[in-house]
Amino acid sequence: MQAQILQFLNNTYPVQLSSMEAVTNEMYRCHSEKGIFFARITNYKTYEEQLAEVNWTTYLFNRGVRVPEVVPNEQDLLISTLLLDEEAKFVVLFRAAAGIHLPRAKWDKTILRTLGQQIGRMHQVSKEYQQSEAAQPIPHWYDNDEYDFLKYIPAEERAIRDIAKDVLKQIRMLPKDEANYGLIHGDLWLNNILVDSDSALTMIDFQDCERHYYAYDLAVPIYSALEYSFAGGQNLIDYKRAITKAITDGYKEEHPLSVEMSRKLPLFMRLKELFEYNLMHMYWNFEELSEEQVRILNLYRSKIEFMHT
Q: Which of these, 120, 128, 277, 280, could form a disulfide with 254 (CB 3.0-4.6 Å)?
């Protein structure tokens, strides 16, 4: 299969790739004398949704926001179609961005402030673009099936379903205008951010981009840092307060953040927690759960209930 993919890429794109290896079941690292590229081959989203994503990231790249560069094919198209195992897959080729996934101990307040600046700049430069025809297929968050918590969280989990209903109700009641709502990355886990030797950050993997409250793009990395980079040695509450201040201070250098929306960050973090829990119910086989999956489910149940008290 990889030989077929490699031949397709060399026939379709203006690059001569010598080798490739799978990174995930839909992402391949490709090697060339011109550098390293990543080929994403998936039908996770429709053609229209993927085109809207890569059109936006190309716009951001051209405006100086640090995002991956999308490589057009020989027909100057950003998406190609590959028939793989008798199934049509959509191909997007990215030039490798500079940097690495930063070790957990390196996520300090300085880096997180820089991340806040990057997010703020992304939101700011997208203000005009989000009204364009090219951006229209990017969905609103509430149209995404993965936020339909009551569809997937079992009826017997009454406490969590009640929490989910309350969180969704609170968010739907928030004012929605161009100052606080627009195009967002939607999945800014720390592993979707590369950091180079000069501490410059590149945001990657825009596949879950959506229209949402801007504060959600701040809540996700705060949530991720609490999950991933907290290494002990200090009070968790103090750590959360410090990283929240770092990210929001950086953000406000590029884009306004109202006091009201700042105060809603814990609410958006609860939304993220429920979102992750819902994904488990959507995609895990509950008839064959591993011990690790059972542990994670129980951990999320306790955290969701604890965070809502």
A: 120
